[in-house]
Every structure is written in structure tokens, then in C-alpha cells.
Design brief:
7 helices
């Protein structure tokens, strides 16, 4: 018996996403936050929230607007990120904004820089279950219209950002070797993280728009092949807070635009 083809696999799962078994709606727009410190910033500084357990993460909804936007996180890695997003979609989410951190691969990317992702190069296993990805360098794009709205919101807030960015999504943070960094950089990647290509692929499969805002947290400097962490830098902390505020505002506006 041969392995099933993509057309054989392009059907619904035997196991349904969480929301189909638990009908509590999360509203039409969801913000997915990968880093726990950013979840803490949002919980403490951007409104009053009701929180409940959501797999190994938390789900936040506004106390005064429980069927508006929702915030889910933290999460690490493509499989778990997609698991959360599938549940959010099953619970009613019709658009997703991603907020995360990334490592800079370009000398032009410094800790605290904001990145709007256009394309994610696939170096993880989850996206292949959602799209027919072939070739030596498969890639997945964010939603064009929602990404433009994200860029417009950043511009209106007078926040500088890197636009139309290609990133590398990997499953193995501790296998970002000099050779891999050089190879992906030569293919156009300016940053690296662990979830976006899979989230983009799953969103395309479910036919919902998705956009991603990342904050540069560290650098894998091309010149010296040395890791330069920036997690403790004041600028990184300042821009994280600004990114949180903008992502919450954008997601809230999306929720009331449906």
C-alpha cells in the first residue's frame, strides 16, 4: 500500500478541534501571543480580562466585551501553535493576528526592531499537513489584506518597522547552525522563529486571514556566527510593550469589523 497522496489527505480530521466539542465562543478576531512575558503585559496593561485555561496556555476575553476579541498564549513551536489556532477557529475566530519574537539574521535587524512578515520559509513539519508543499524551498505567505492593515496601523502609530519581510521558520532552535543561517539568509530570510509558516498554512487551509508582527529579540550575526541576545535591552522591552498595545488595538478593531 502506498502512502496517501495530498488529495487523499485533504479532508477533515477524525479528531475535531477543541471548539467543536466546547462551544464557548471566543469572538471573531483572535490575537495569538507566543511569549509569556507579552501575555503578562497584555493582561496587566491593556484592559480588564477574564482568563481561563486553554490547553497548556491561557485564553483571555475582555470583561466588558466577551464576544469581541480574544487573546491566546503563550505557545512554543509549530504543532502547538497550530493546535491553539485550530481551536480558536472552531470557537468562532475569523481572523488571527500573531505577536511574537524573532532572531535577526540581517545586520539591519537589531533587538527591538518591529517586523511585519510577508513570507515564511518552511523548515518545520506541521505545515505539510495543511498545504501541498513541494520543492527545495517551500514558502507560505501571510494574508495580503490583513498584513496591509497591520502595516497601516504601525504607520498611523508612527512606529518604524521592517516591511515585506521573509523569515525562516524552524522546529529546532538549537540547530540554527552557521551553515543553516548562511543558507537561509542567502535565500532571503532576514529573521528566524518557530511558528509562522505553520500558522500561515493552517490559516490558508481554514480560509481565514492572518498577519504576523514580530519583535527582534536577538541576533545571529552573519559576520561572526555568534549569538547576540537582546532580551535584557531597554529598547527590546520598550518596543515589546508598544507592539502589545498595537496588536490588541488592531485585533479589537477587527473583531468589531465583522
Amino acid at each position: 500500500m502506498s502512502y496517501p497522496t495530498w488529495s487523499d489527505l485533504n479532508s477533515e480530521s477524525i479528531v475535531p478541534p477543541l471548539g467543536e466539542r466546547n462551544a464557548r465562543s471566543v469572538g471573531p478576531a483572535a490575537l495569538m501571543v507566543s511569549a509569556d512575558p507579552d501575555m503578562a503585559l497584555i493582561r496587566q496593561g491593556f484592559g480588564k480580562w477574564r482568563s481561563r485555561a486553554f490547553f497548556n496556555s491561557n485564553l483571555l476575553v475582555k470583561e466588558d466585551d466577551p464576544l469581541g476579541m480574544s487573546v491566546a498564549g503563550p505557545y512554543i513551536g509549530a504543532p502547538y501553535g497550530v493546535m491553539l489556532m485550530e481551536a480558536l477557529i472552531a470557537k468562532g475566530a475569523k481572523a488571527v493576528v500573531v505577536l511574537g519574537w524573532c532572531g535577526g539574521l540581517s545586520p539591519d535587524f537589531a533587538p527591538g526592531d518591529l517586523v511585519v512578515v510577508e513570507t515564511a520559509l518552511v523548515d518545520e513539519g506541521t505545515s505539510r499537513h495543511y498545504m501541498d508543499l513541494r520543492g527545495d524551498l517551500p514558502a507560505v505567505n501571510a494574508d495580503t489584506r490583513l498584513t496591509a492593515k497591520l502595516a497601516d496601523a504601525l504607520g498611523a502609530a508612527a512606529l518604524k518597522f521592517h516591511a515585506d519581510v521573509t523569515i525562516w521558520t524552524t522546529d529546532a532552535i538549537y540547530r540554527e547552525t552557521p551553515e543553516k543561517v548562511s543558507w537561509y539568509r542567502d535565500k532571503g530570510a532576514c529573521a528566524v522563529e518557530m511558528e509562522c509558516s505553520a500558522l500561515f498554512a493552517a490559516a490558508a487551509f481554514r480560509k481565514i486571514p492572518i498577519a504576523a508582527l514580530l519583535v527582534v529579540s536577538d541576533a545571529l550575526a552573519p559576520a561572526d556566527a555568534i549569538w547576540h541576545p537582546g532580551f535584557g535591552k531597554k529598547r527590546f522591552k520598550t518596543m515589546r510593550k508598544k507592539a502589545c498595545g498595537l496588536a490588541v488595538e488592531l485585533t479589537g478593531n477587527l473583531a468589531h469589523g465583522f
